[in-house]
Amino acid sequence: MAINNIVVLGAGVSGLTTAYLLSQDPANSITVVAKHMPGDYDIEYCSPWAGANYLPMGQPDTDHAKWEKQTWQPLKELTEKHPEAGIHFQDTIIYNRKKDQETATGQWFSSLMDANPWYRDIVLDFKNLPKDQLAPGIDNAQTFTSVCINTAVYLPWLVGQCRKNGAVFKRAQFKHVADAAKAHHSGRAADVVLNCTGLSSKTLGGVLDQKLYPARGQIVVVRNDPGRMAGISGTDDGEEELFYMMTRAAGGGTILGGCYQKHVWDPLPDPNLAVRIMKRAIAICPELVAEGQGIEGLDIIRHGVGLRPLRDGGPRIEAEKIDGVAVVHNYGHGGFGYQSSYGCAAEAIRLVKETLQKKAQAKL
């Protein structure tokens, strides 16, 4: 059996999911090479900071929506059959306000703002709330059962699955994407390099994708458990501020967010924004704290900042040759990397297979 030597560059959720699926084929010999690995907390490394959950955001009949559709079933199966992956089901409620439709956060939430969204038959127990149950200012709301991922458990779980399938992990960083071809653990050049470097593809030699930019997110992680996941399409505190809340599985704490600040690179939490985040959370979900308590009733674990890797035109999943090296890109997933991870990985793997077939035919 011919062995395909593959290097996956990047160990965020996109790189690890792609490596995991590739490693299931015994014909593939996988080396994952990354500057940052699960367990690291660095502003360059977005995946650990994510909530993370499944709240579909792709517009109907787009690649984005297709990738999210393809990701639901794998996440659902992991939740049901592999509790060690750190994913659980959560009751979810989404509140929508028509006045948010033209704001930055409203546009991000646009699919969630639809009273009859495409994903109603994908998530579990979807219902629209009756109008008489809506608070003043809320135009529609929906409830359903979705999943929330404890990233501190799930990312290492993906590493473990890859290692069980024979993948090798190495720390390294490269100035040029083509240099990663020399990093395969066999000592031989890789047949394909998968570039899953997220926002770092903006500065990675051979890629230098200037369509990439950050959308800064800030969170407060607390020990309080409201018992449900929630979100709203916007706030009155500013166009780039929003509210979302989810409790990570396996004791991972409750994430309170947030903001969606485009082109902002600041890695430090803003104390004033943190206060607004906490006040919004209690206003929308009073059961977070004991009756009569304000933000002083929140038991804070930590504050955090992550930079979502946004890309004009959407994620880049395509193949090309760079300095003689076959490269398949899978990056630029913005704020939906987890909930599109399996769909995007499947698309990248299709391109890997096409690339390998072309190489094999060229040798004949």
TrEMBL record:
Its cofactor is FAD. Its EC number is 1.4.3.3. D-dopa binds at residues 244, 335. It catalyses: a D-alpha-amino acid + O2 + H2O = a 2-oxocarboxylate + H2O2 + NH4(+). FAD binds at residues 177, 197. InterPro entries: D-amino_acid_oxidase_CS (IPR006181), DAO (IPR023209), FAD-dep_OxRdtase (IPR006076). One of its GO terms (cellular component) is peroxisomal matrix. Residues 6-348 form the FAD dependent oxidoreductase domain. Keywords: FAD, Flavoprotein, Oxidoreductase, Peroxisome. It is found in: Peroxisome matrix. One of its GO terms (molecular function) is FAD binding. One of its GO terms (biological process) is D-amino acid catabolic process. Belongs to the DAMOX/DASOX family. This is D-amino-acid oxidase. It comes from Aspergillus calidoustus. The lineage of its organism: Eukaryota, Fungi, Dikarya, Ascomycota, Pezizomycotina.
